[in-house]
Design brief:
This protein is α/β, with parallel strands linked by helices. It has nine helices and seven strands. The structure holds nicotinamide-adenine-dinucleotide. Nicotinamide-adenine-dinucleotide (NAD) binds next to helix 1 and helix 6.
Length: about 270
């Protein structure tokens, strides 16, 4: 896969999946803007990833929120100034929390929908406007979740947001295909990152996930990053509008109601 001469905006790239996605894109030759809420984490990640590639690809940090229109515009301006119009975008930033609907503060709903659904909209809009103005092709990858289809008690906001991401992916793919911009999504299963290590992997929840996953293990960030790099590259040149499950086969037998116990397990 050759991404030499391209540049990418990767959101939430300070840690977890986003960091590994940025690393993979750089290994294939793309320069990357690390668009991250936490400025210190962004700066450290950009510095470390640039050092790893020994000058073959560059990473720069940009602090801001994907849910804020001005921050998104500033990030794309910074990327364009540093590398030229970014042809690749990975909408990876996300947040999650757990509570049943009857207990859920409206602020939690707003935060999850803002970061996980509005963020990909704002960033896709910013990327597509610039690509169309420059007459350049592009590729956009949205990090959805198995929760785009699996209904998990305690995650109503997150499930709604990820369903929105996968539906948004299809409409964006159709609207942007005439401009040679492909849009795809990845639906990861439970993957070992700081987000999931905050309680999702442990105990009964983790055991149930493993038991229902044919390949019998959690995902690692690189499982997701390698697919993201493929979807950014011309190797996937005739794929658009897809949500690709990357979950060790967890979706094969359907995303059952065993997920109902996740909330119970996580708050126990
Ligand atoms: N870890 C899993 O098991 C799993 C499974 C399915 C889907 N996902 C999705 O994968 C993506 C990455 O998750 P992760 O597990 O690496 O999470 P993580 O919490 O480890 O990393 C997320 C990053 O996003 C950043 N971020 C949060 N809000 C932001 C905002 N408003 N603007 C910019 N950056 C922001 C955080 O600072 C953090 O660096 C998310 O979209 C998540 O929903 C994760």
């Amino acid at each position: 896969m050759d991404l030499i001469g391209t540049s990418a905006v990767v959101t939430g790239a300070g840690q977890g999946m986003g960091r590994q996605i940025a690393r993979r894109l750089m290994q294939h030759g793309a320069d990357v803007l690390v668009f991250e809420l936490n400025g210190d984490v962004a700066a450290r990640t950009a510095q470390e990833l640039s050092a790893e590639t020994d000058g073959a690809a560059r990473a720069i940090a940009h602090a801001g929120s994907v849910a804020d229109t001005a921050d998104v515009d500033a990030a794309f301006e910074a990327a364009t100034a540093a590398f030229g119009t970014p042809q690749l975008l990975v909408n990876n930033a996300g947040v999650a929390s757990m509570s049943l609907i009857v207990d859920m503060p409206a602020e939690d709903w707003d935060l999850v929908l803002d970061v996980c659904a509005k963020g990909p909209f704002l960033c896709t809009q910013a990327a597509a406007r610039r690509l169309i103005a420059a007459g350049l092709p592009g590729a956009i990858v949205n990090i959805s979740s198995i929760n785009y289809a699996a209904a998990t008690d305690g995650l109503a906001h997150y499930c709604a947001a990820k369903a929105a991401v996968s539906q948004f992916t299809k409409v964006a793919a159709a609207e942007l295909a005439p401009s040679a911009i492909r849009v795809n999504a990845i639906a990861p299963g439970l993957t070992r990152t700081p987000m999931s290590e905050g309680g999702f992997l442990d105990g009964r929840m983790g055991e149930e996930f493993i038991a229902h996953t044919p390949m019998g293990r959690f995902g690692e960030p690189d499982d997701i990053a390698r697919v993201a790099a493929f979807l950014c590259s011309e190797d996937s040149g005739w794929i658009t509008g897809a949500t690709v499950p990357v979950d060790g086969g967890g979706h094969i037998r359907g995303l059952h109601n065993y997920w109902a116990t996740m909330h119970e397990a996580s708050v126990a």
